[in-house]
Each structure stands twice: as C-alpha cells, then as structure tokens.
Design goal:
heterodimer, A: 315 residues, ABC transporter involved in vitamin B12 uptake, BtuC, 14 helices, 74% helix, B: 326 residues, mainly alpha, membrane (chain A), transmembrane transporter activity (chain A), ABC transporter permease (chain A), cell membrane (chain A), transmembrane (chain A)
C-alpha cells in the first residue's frame, strides 16, 4: 500500500492515467478493435512531442518568463535543411541530421544572444527570432519537393514487434535527460536558477552560461525534431512544426513541471505526450469534425490546466 | 559653498537633464519609428504620400490597432493572450454570418464571447494559472468554433458595417482618424481615469493594491473583458474591410498584436503600457509589413521577417537609450 501511495504522490502519474483512460475509452468505442495498433501509432507520434517537450521543459524550468516560442519556426527550417542536405541520398543521412542539429543550435544560440544583448524577456526574443526564422524558411524551402532518403524514411518508421524503434531511442534519450536534470551539474544548475536566480548566482552558478546552454539545447532538439518529422512524414514543410508550439508547452505543464520554474519532471512529458496524441486519436475515432476536434482539444487542455493549476504564473 | 560642492551640484543637474532627455527620447521612440518608416516610403514612392495612398496602405491598420489595444490590456495586467488572433477570426465568422442574418443572435454571441474572456480572467486569477497556457488552449477553442460556424470561407459583412468602414471623410483618410480616435479614447480611459490607474497598478504592484483594499479578481476580470471587447471590435472592423470571412483570417494577429504593444513602448511586466504607443506600433507594423517592402521590391516572403527585424531594431534602440537613462 505504501508503494501505491508514493506512486500516487508522483506528479507524473496523472498524465499516464489520463492517457490510459483515453485509450480505454477509444478501445471500448471500437469494441476492442485496433487497441494495439493505436498504441504503436501513439508511440510513433508522441516521440516528436517528447523531443521538443524535453527542450521546452529545460527552458521553462529556468524560471518565470522563460519559454521558447521559436520552436515551430525552428522545426520548419530544420526540416527543410535536413531534406536539402540529404537530397534523397542514403549516404548523406548523417550529414543531413548534423546539419539540422547545427541549424537548430544556431537558432537557439541566436535566441539567447537576443535575450542577453537586448535584455528583453525570452518570450519577445524568441518571438522576434521566430518571425525571422519563418521568413528564412519560406524563402529557403519554397517549393521544396525533396523526399527523404529511403533509408531515413524507413528508419523513422521502423518497428520491432509493434514498438517503434524511434520511441525506444527516445525513451533512452529521456532517461539521459532525467539523469542530466537530477544528477549532473548542468541540470542541478538549471533547477537552481529556476528556484532563485540570484541565489544561484551567489552560489557560484554561471547563470549566463547555463541559460545559453539551455536555449541552445532547446534549439538543437527542435532541429532534430524537424529532421525526424520530415523523415516520418516524407517531406519538409513550412508548417510542419506549427502544432508543436502548444504541444511542447502543454506536455511540460500537464506532465507536472512547474511553470514557475525550478521543478521539472521528465516522465510526465512522456505521459502528457501520449495523452495528447491518444486524445486526438480518440476524437478521430469518434468521427468528430475538425471544428469539434479543435474545440474539444482546447477545452480539455484548459480543463487539465485548471485542475492541475494552483501554481505561480509563468510570467 | 565650496567650489567642489557647486561642481557636484552642476554635475547632478546635468545627469538629471541627461536622464530626462533619455526618458523623453524613449517615449518618442514609437513615433520616431513610425516617422522613419513613413520617410522611407515617401523617399521610395512619393506618390504614396497622398489621401488615396494612405487609405490604401493603412487599409488593414484599424483591425490591427484594435487587436493591439486588446493585447495591451492583458499585458497591462502582466498576462499574455495567445488566443487573440483566433478570437478575431471567430468574431469575424460570427460577424459575417449571424450578425448579418440574425442580428440579435449575433449580438448575444459576441457579448457572450466577451463574457467568456471575463470568466477566463477570473479563472486565471482564482486558480493562479499561467495565462500563456490557458490562452494557448483557448486559441484552439476559438478556431474550432470559427470552423464550426463557417466551414468554408464566405459569408458577408452586414451592410451598416460595410458602409462604416468605407467611410471617406474629407482631407484625412479614415484609418488615420480611426487610429487617432482609438488612441485618444483608450489613453483617457486607461491613463487618465482613477480606475485606469488601479488597472495598471494591478500589473505594477499587485501586492500593494491588494493591501490597499482593491480586488485583484475584479481588475483581472475587467482587463480580460476589455481585451475581449477590443477583440470583438477588431474582428468586426476586419470583416467590414474584407467583406467576407474565413476561419483562419485572424491567425496572424496574435503575434502582430504582441509586437505592436512592445513596439509602442509597452513592457512585459510592471503594468507599463502606452495606448498611444500601441496604436503607433500597430501602424508601424502595418506600414512596414507590406507597403514598404513592396516599394523596396522585397518579395512578400520576407514580410514576417521585416516585423521581427523592426522589433529587434526598436528594442536595441531602447536598450541604448535606457543605458543613458541610468
């Protein structure tokens, strides 16, 4: 019983419960048909949200006002860069991935440069950056029809016994992120800055360097996500990252990370991402129209935040 | 008095003067940016500086200015509304359908949506929620509703709205008069009335207001309701110009409105906003985004980038000025 109680006290358990509940509702609706396939599909799609969600989580943990609004534009640009560099050629996959990572890191570093040089809130800095990135992407990726190399497309869709390989790799990545957060100097510094930036500075944390690294990390994960998305959906697209603005922030908050900063939760990101993806699957299975789907998604997010709320405001 | 003391006094006076100059420069920054953009347009295409030219170039300035003012109210209370764009789209769809075919229903729905905004303010205050997440969720709600009301682009603006927006006053183009009117009305309401001070104070020092006996719940509700009201006005003005609606018509307004407030000298925290600045900021963005780029022969791909670049340049200028202010 004691172990159950400690389990319930974990903030991330609720997001997994929510995901389970939504899955059960859908399976009950279909009469048990396609339950397994649904989990496979949910895992493959949740991966993309988890990757950017972890980046966003580190940024939000830095404290009030820290948020990366440039992720959608970043993902869009990186997807175009990856496809252009790979050019449908299997031998260029690694180079293309590296190019997308570099592109994302450059975006993240530029974000922090704006925050630091103009001393403006990160919301405004990442917002202005995203305007410019978006234009670069529109101009650079115009009419881009390049398909991903077959090897790369197969890799992003590769499954072993119904489990997407990308999901397994992402689980390993999130375990790494959790260790970095809780056990490494970098992660502890991020938490310390989020709890009290001045105290962290006085304790000798190099605040500027840690914030720079965090924004660069978030940008890099956005770049990686862009490349993987382009592989999975077989082509780059300016709007490919649009839904990840809401999704990345929502999974962080629903997953039990404090929007006031200083308290992060990695497993919750997975639970919340699965919850969001399964929610969409459920609404699609119920056959509701696009309008109702958007309406319900919004209402459920507001509802979940309201129930989970009671935290200090983000800004 | 010794010579050193006099010297010190003089030095104090001169730094005070410098600080005052920097403050003045800072408050003039929105007007200066607009003047700069206007000068560039006049230099590139002198014919644009005419009654007809301004009516054309500032065509969409009224809805942008109204959406910016809407965003300014939430920012005054240290919150952010990421749903204003889709809300404008939703209002547009209601305006082009129900407000024309069943005016009473349309009015009830629009008034109800302002009520929803007020409720959101109450919810955010009472549950201490991050407004950015709540409004991001609401942006999906408004978009969903807009698609349900108007699945395909279409509808038609009510005739009275069309004739209002097509109004051609003598000498001064309508958008300029409307922008002036909006700026002056909101300026007096927010900056010159006693409750306006309380509203801004809720963003400046909420704890102090609370101890002075003011209800923070009420200020938040009022600020959000005002955002809803100006969002409704923005959507209606937009449909009055475009004549028909589309569920995605307002999507770009969210970011444009935030940019306008910041361009106009608003600060993200501390209740420091400026209605006149916000309207000037909106006009600058409206002019810089398309007419200026067209005259410079820059492809429309770079429109969004121009907004970002202007934002960064103005913020950089502000940093330079603020450095002297200290």
């Amino acid at each position: 019983m004691a172990s159950l109680q400690t389990l319930i006290a974990k903030p991330w358990i609720w997001s997994f419960l929510g995901a389970l509940l939504v899955w059960l509702a859908t399976v009950a609706f279909t009469g048990g048909y396609g339950g397994g396939g649904m989990i496979t599909a949910a895992l493959s799609l949740a991966v993309f949200t988890v990757i950017v969600g972890v980046g966003q989580m580190f940024v939000i943990t830095l404290g009030p006002g820290n948020v990366d609004l440039s992720l959608p534009a970043n993902i869009g640009l990186a997807s175009a860069v990856a496809m252009k560099v790979m050019d449908g050629n299997d031998s260029m996959i690694v180079v293309g991935l590296l190019a997308a990572l570099a592109c994302g890191m450059a975006v993240g570093a530029a974000n922090y440069l704006l925050i630091w040089a103009l001393r403006i809130p990160p919301i405004i800095a990442t917002l202005s950056a995203s305007f410019i990135i978006q234009s670069i992407d529109i101009s650079y990726g115009r009419g881009l029809q390049i398909k991903p190399p077959p090897g790369f497309a197969d890799f992003t869709n590769w499954q072993i016994l119904g489990v997407p390989v990308l999901a397994i790799l992402t689980v390993l990545f999130t375990i790494g992120a959790a260790i970095a957060l809780q056990r490494m100097i970098y992660g502890r510094s991020v938490l310390a800055i989020g709890q009290n930036i001045r105290a962290a500075w006085l304790a000798g944390v190099n605040v500027g360097r840690i914030r720079f690294l965090t924004y660069t990390l978030s940008g890099m994960l956005g770049g990686l996500d862009g490349a993987l998305l382009a592989g999975y959906f077989r082509g780059a697209n300016v709007d490919i990252g649009n839904e990840y603005l809401l999704a990345s922030i929502a999974v962080v908050v629903i997953g039990g990370t404090s929007v006031a900063g200083g308290k992060a939760n990695v497993p919750g990101v997975w639970g919340a991402a699965l919850f969001l993806v399964l929610l969409l699957t459920m609404l699609n299975t119920f056959g509701v129209s696009a309008g109702v789907r958007l309406l319900l998604t919004g209402l459920i997010i507001v509802g979940v935040i309201t129930v989970a709320g009671g935290q200090k405001a983000l800004r | 008095m010794t010579a050193a003391a006099i010297e010190n006094q003089l030095k104090g006076a001169s730094t005070r003067n410098a600080a005052a100059r920097a403050r003045l420069l800072r408050s003039l920054l929105p007007a200066l940016s607009l003047a700069l953009v206007l000068l560039a347009i006049a230099w590139l295409n002198p014919r644009a500086i005419s009654y007809f030219g301004f009516s054309l170039m500032l065509n969409l300035a009224i809805p942008i200015a109204l959406a910016t003012i809407a965003q300014m109210f939430v920012i005054a209370g240290n919150e952010l509304d990421l749903s204003i764009g889709t809300f404008v789209g939703f209002v547009g769809c209601v305006t082009a359908t129900w407000l024309k075919d069943a005016p009473l229903l349309g009015i009830v729905v629009l008034a109800g949506s302002i009520g929803v905004y007020a409720l959101l303010g109450a919810l955010i205050h009472m549950r201490n929620l991050p407004s950015i997440v709540v409004t991001l969720g609401m942006s999906f709600v408004w978009q969903g509703l807009a698609i349900l009301i108007l699945p395909k682009p279409g509808g038609k603006a009510p005739d009275w709205l069309l004739s209002l927006m097509a109004f051609k006053p003598p000498f001064i183009p309508f958008p300029i008069i409307a922008a002036l009117l909006i700026a002056v009305v909101v300026h007096f309401g927010l900056m010159r009335t006693s409750y306006g001070v309380i509203l801004r104070g809720s963003g400046g020092n909420a704890a102090a207001l609370k101890r002075a006996g003011w209800s923070l719940l009420k200020t938040k509700i009022v600020l959000f309701a005002l955002t809803g009201l100006f969002g409704v006005l923005s959507g209606m003005a937009l449909i009055g110009i475009t004549t028909s609606a589309d569920a995605n018509i307002g999507n770009g307004y969210t970011l444009l409105a935030i940019a306008g407030v910041i361009l106009g000298g608003g600060e993200f925290v501390g209740g420091r906003v400026s209605p006149i600045g916000a309207v000037l900021g909106a006009l600058t963005l409206a002019l810089a985004a398309s007419p200026l780029l067209t005259f410079m022969h820059i492809p429309p791909d770079w429109q969004v980038a121009a907004n970002g670049a202007i934002l960064i340049i103005v913020l950089a200028a502000r940093v330079l000025i603020s450095r002297r202010e200290r």
